[in-house]
């Protein structure tokens, strides 16, 4: 090994640190191949492995290389690796793997550092400075349904992961406040409840949607009127505008209640917000020769797509495509976002594919979708009921979100009462814990599998205290806290002693997993896959269980060290909960 130039860091992304070391080694080992990137991954046999030798061998063989086989390259990579405290030893294995064993002492020190300086020191660093996360985005006058709940939960976690990575996140609620439904609703209101009756009728907005939609579908004359109403609304007709504002306000209050319960922050910039930018946007497309007329409508044809983007309908109305293009223009130019992330159900994939392609065609986005500014569509699967069909209540109606959250909370409260917690805790404690567990269960169940898959909504499963559920994990956390508390030791004092020793195999395995937190968040965040974080959290609890069942903590000779390991586990667990939008509980 050669001496390290820079003083190595003890914090942050472990894998990145190894990549840096191997990069230095590769530059010395194969100076003629400067573009080779280190291939470092979690090891199958040891802690990590570097897989470059095999690929390098096929590149250099027969070109007068000094190496005789891949294993020789692997050996040279080891020889040229900068010496550092982090790596305990390296070995090579056929045909040319480099296996890395980390130093337990270094691992312990890194964990101690995190305990002293905070988990923020493990935050990933991303190259993006400003990102928009467009999520939740229900449609005014329609009830928010489980699909919007999924978007809200997933979008919030993505935003939290980015925020933790020091990205400025613009959390945008792109509510549907502008479509055909408003023409339909307003005309229906005016027809059924003329004059003063309108006000009161609006209060019951949800009840209006169904009958007005039925009329819209059945009565062509009404349909035409409704379509005209949309155009009048978009043209700022004062009467229509006032009614529309009232409709929006009522829905907004309904949503606010849900967001508050879920502790999700969002800033509403709905479809209508981008109206002032539409004319210039269309002008830009026009000047680039991209707008065509088709049956009285203005459209933009997109390479490889049969259906064009509809910019202006023949009646003069704008569409979902128009507002999305205007919003993108605004986000790129006014908000200077470098990454714009849209979270919707997979059913909208075609819309986003086409719209992204349109933006590339105009030249707003680079051709290469990895280069900034970039856009990503996070698509999630359908929420199904226990019967495997679309999630509905007993009356075959879409389940309102408030009811769903109520039910999760009630069930978790019942389970706590069954365990006689109502005798032990104050009513507030009982209520808060029931809420943390109930809502946490809903959120975790939503994200624990790859979100692109459909998922079956089952209260029994999500509220089970066994297996990969929020309940199980929250209990695991509470148990750790109670172990620390029972010791009667002051953890802040213990942190200062610097006594963490990872000499038992299960301590070491837990320590390694803790240190892999940073790279996991980075991967979950850059690949937009929240389930990676859930998997990490569940594995953490498994590692902890193994450690705890073999290593006595309280009153043992290694009590201080093991309490520190317990504390580090609790800290990392809490950060995972935080990123998943789940409130931790401290006692059970
Ligand atoms: N309102 C839409 C819906 O409920 C989702 C909007 C997503 N965001 C966007 N910029 N298109 O399906």
UniProtKB/TrEMBL annotation:
Group of enzyme by EC: ligase
Top-level taxon of origin: Eukaryota
Domain DALR anticodon binding residue range list: 473-588
Alphabetically ordered keywords of this record: Aminoacyl-tRNA synthetase, ATP-binding, Ligase, Nucleotide-binding, Protein biosynthesis
Arginyl tRNA synthetase N-terminal domain segment(s): 16-102
PROSITE patterns, alphabetized: AA_TRNA_LIGASE_I (PS00178)
InterPro entries, A to Z: aa-tRNA-synth_I_CS (IPR001412), Arg-tRNA-ligase (IPR001278), Arg-tRNA-synth_N (IPR005148), Arg-tRNA-synth_N_sf (IPR036695), ArgRS_core (IPR035684), DALR_anticod-bd (IPR008909), Rossmann-like_a/b/a_fold (IPR014729), tRNAsynth_Ia_anticodon-bd (IPR009080)
Tagged with keyword Ribosomal protein: no
Enzyme nomenclature, EC number: 6.1.1.19
Catalytic function, reaction form: tRNA(Arg) + L-arginine + ATP = L-arginyl-tRNA(Arg) + AMP + diphosphate
Pfam annotation, one family: DALR_1
HAMAP family on file: Arg_tRNA_synth (MF_00123)
Annotated protein name in UniProt: arginine--tRNA ligase
The species this protein was found in: Camelina sativa
Gene name of the encoded protein: LOC104745644
